[in-house]
Fold each of these.
Amino acid sequence: MSPLHRPLSLLTALLALALWSDPSPAATSSPGVLDSRISAVTLFPDRAQVTRVARATLEGGEGRILLEGLPLTMDPASLRIRARGPEGLVLGAVDVQPLRGREAVREEERRLLELIAAREAARQAIDDRLSSLALQLLTVEALAREPGGDAGLQPERWQDWLTRLEATASPLHERRSEARRERATIDEELARLRRELEDLGRGERDSYRVSLHWRSPAEGEAEFVLDYQVGNAGWQSVYELRLDTAADRMGLLQQAEVRQDTGEDWDGVALTLSTARPALGGRLPELRTRYLDIVDPAVPVARRAVGPDMAEPAFAELADAAAPELATTGDDRFAAEWRLAGPRSVRAGAASQRHALQSLTLDTTIGARSVPARSPHAWLYATTAYTGESPLPAGRALLFQDGVFVGERAFAALVPGADLELSFGVDQRIEVIRRLVEDQRGTEGLVRRQQRHTRTWVIEVHNGHDRPIRLSVLDQLPVPRDERIQVALSRESTAPDERDVDGRRGVVAWHRDYAAGARSELRFGYVVTWPQDVGPIRGL
């Protein structure tokens, strides 16, 4: 045998020693304790209903299963369990007990330690494989430095030698690269498992353990579904209202701002949002008898005992119960619901998330309002009819005018078909100036002398837009609290189109359509009279 063949035979033997397999075992769950996952969540404004699913293989007869890790925010009275499995499967007693945090993590700690030991063994096996490959590569390098041994290699055989050398070295390099990649993956897994083990001690939480008895005449696969309600969760509507003044349209994007700190993560769940308020319960507040009595001056009111039949607690209870506002829908349901598309994930304690619910484009009438007694500016107003199918719950509104954010305001609940009117900030193209032109005091009358105070303003309006716009100008008449004081609109005043606007006494308004570039004036004045023998008037 030539010197060339002797080293190659040695390489073949070394390669046979490099065979390796991963001995890592699969993780197993503790007997009797079922793994479960959250499959669906219905989120209410102030709580959530969670659906958790667990599966098990049952043998014929009867037994008990355990489910652990249910959060302490769960209301045990709300727990309901359903099951599907072999024919004749019957559920027995359900026991819910608090579980101390250390007790709950002991099994998880043992599982993590077993996984870490298995991955460390796998990493050691890869290190051994890399050592074997390194030895083989050293042998190949030695052959490359002295081809043919002491006798040397004839030049006419160099090409054959190089071909054999490449055929031997290339697989060794590929196997080494593959082993290094496997080792890097195992290192990442080990780092993650060690972090979980470290966090396990810090994250020990008390939780609930559910023990469920069952009986089945036959063996087979079973699925257990748990429904329960948890606190520390909720959602509110956030609306983006985008006004396009050129197109007289407004885009409405309804979003849900979701938050939860229930102690368990919702990973890849079917998420439904509901406006129902299960926290209010099913008991209608009761009205108690109200009594009237003469107050005894000898007994200070603040020291009187409030008995169970007094009005104060009855009114307090009624106010607390009536505060939440329930939304309705047009299809005879008692609450509106939105089912979000696709699985959603919400981590416990994380920052709130926003999820889009619906998007609409609404035809809008654009106008303006001005209160020149307070500001020389006019505010742009948009009025539209809500044409959606579901009621809009109360929430927050983010306002955008022609792509620019102009502010935030509260958004009142809205039902389909209702009018929506919103202010979108100052309209820079409308100028409103209010000038005082008369301010006189004097007396009048011969027999019954009266004092008289007259004030008059001129309100100048300029529409700087290149299109017509409807402008409402608001001002205010003083409102007397004493019947001896009389207030009247002056004769020179432009008659207002509306009085006591929005139910506010004394507020008057002029609604006018102004052509593009138009200028005009309004006159507003009032006369206040009162008896001369009455002291000075406060509030003029």
Note: Residues 1-31, 301-332 have pLDDT under 50 and may be disordered.
Amino acid sequence: MPVFVLIPLLPLLASLILVLGGRRWGEHSHRIGIPAIGLSFGLSVGAFLEVLRNGPFSISLYRLFQSGSLAIDVNLYVDQLTVLILLLVTGLSGIVHVYSSRYMIGDPRYNRFFAVIALFTFSMVLLVMSGNLLMLLVSWEVMGICSYLLISHSAQRPSACRAATKAFLVNAVADVGLSFGIIMTFFTFGTLDIQTILGQAESMKDHTINIMGWMGLDMHIYPVTLIPFFLFLGAMGKSAQMPFHVWLPFAMEAPTPVSALIHAATMVNAGPFLLVRLSPLIVLSPFAMTFIAIVGATTAVFAGIVSLTQSDIKKILAYSTISQIGFMIMTCGLGAFAVAVFHLLAHGCYKAFFFLSTGNALRSVEPGHGHEASLHPPPKGMGILYGGALFLACLPPFILFSGSYEYLWGVTGFTSATIGFRIIGLMTVFVTSIYLFRSVTSIFVHGPKTYWPASGHSPLEPHSIRPQFLNGSILSSLLLAIILLGVMLTLFWSWFANFLAPALTYPGMSVHEGIVDSGSKIWLLVSIGVAIAGWAFAYSRARSGTQMVGAVNRSTRLYVLFWNKLYFDEIYDAYLVNPTIRFSHWLWRNIDIRVIDKVIHSIAIYSVVFAQWLWRVVDVNGIDRIVVGFGQQSVGMSQWLWRVVDVKGIDRIVVGLGQQSVGMSHWLWRVIDIKWLEQRIGQVGKQADTAGKLLQAAEPRTIQHQLLVMIVWLVLATVLLYILV
């Protein structure tokens, strides 16, 4: 188990190594990031197998803070939901790292780029594995900082800097709601541990707090009802839901790998994950659930329509992401959390493919190499294709209304999920039947085409190609492959729902509680009828030669309205940004300059005047006089001490001692030094005479021996004299 700590730790270590290494890594930085993310993905697979065999597990690291009953532990929690998101995040991040190793060649900030995307991956992985709300909030904010750094990667472009600032500010505003929700959650439950909160959520359903008690008033609220609203505000910002969606289209200023990472693996997926992770708490607030469903549905419809009116491929993909995330949020509001997770995984995979492959696709349709299909009624003799399109249009009803897909919507047992499934399912069947009709007729028939020259001037004469039909065996094989795919998806949906169900089972709620089995056959028949109606609508439009795509006239007000994204950016600029800037200027002129600056200047002037008064009154007339008087007294005291103590006392004593010492010295010289020393010298002289006489009596010696003896005796006499004296 402890080895799974490396799942978030490896990207963090890779980021730190790249940051501390500086530019020395250069264009070899990917050699640090790619292996780290690859190993993290391998460990995520191991965690998936561990959960599949033994169920959820937690990893306690250390106690971060403890005060009284409050204890905040740094711990990781891994369950069925966690491992599925981990596989998506680490897998797609690894692909993005590999893609970036070639895409970013020549970029002067190559090392910085890989350091930040590794930290970006770490923050999302830690958010998914967080065991308490504090770790979740920290990783949530780190992700916002990383998004700012990545969007502004090309800082030399003002548009990139503005886009990064916009993304950071919008998310910062939304994160205030998330922070307040976490504070209220702690105030209500007394803990930040997610599993403890979810376990106590049902028992705290009727708990109230008096928010006006500090004023002596009574105003009781149900915190369990309000907490989901504040938590969802944070999710709205990260997942770009209306009205906080305006930052995501501008985030396309980032390099393409960053866009793929934000849209597919991180950032926007944080909102749906937060709702699913805290779903036992979310479902206790029906008003919050309704609000979430309305916001998600509104965002999905709005962004879907806007994406149809855009011409910039990146903005099309951005609004497509907003629409898909809105659909996930809506399903969370309906209680179909399993559908939200399934859609999140599927959307992450195909949206990453879209971003990483769009560049090559655009190169293949450069000016001069494209063509436009002319709009002519289809030729006769296409009955087999129309019949095949009708057969394909009838497959989605069987997959949706008679297979295991419906089980995904009923895992948490909400009647609203069942109703939402049927409404959305019928809409999907109708739209799918129309697009299947168009796809079949466009794939198997090459209608008349008009080729445009590279110069872009007047078109050449259209070159018509006779309809070409594929033989029946190929069409039959295609139909058989689609049927097999439907059966495989049915089995996969059933396994997916069963695997995820333990993570979405709440106290007091049983699986399939909200699914109404009665009337399923009727709904199947209704969906088949809707599919036939969609096919009939497409057929009538095809027979009449009416264009089914781009039917909205560019001159209509409706098209202009959605082409300008309902003027959200202009409204924000007109009613939020510009008024805020003007208010800031007003504050600067009237508060900062006329009030604060004047107060500060007045304080400075009065401080100088007061300092001058202190100098004259206190310093000169007070302190200086005291110091001068004290100095004069000190000088007088010193003179008195010199006359009385030094001259009359110490000097007299010293002089008397000196005179006594001189007299003593004279007496010692006369008595001891002269008399005693002369006696000692006389004795030595006598001894020397005696020795001389003895030497004369001795046998003759050479002059050298005599001198040596004299020297020896002289030395001995000197030593003896020194010793005696």
Note: The longest helix spans residues 568-697.
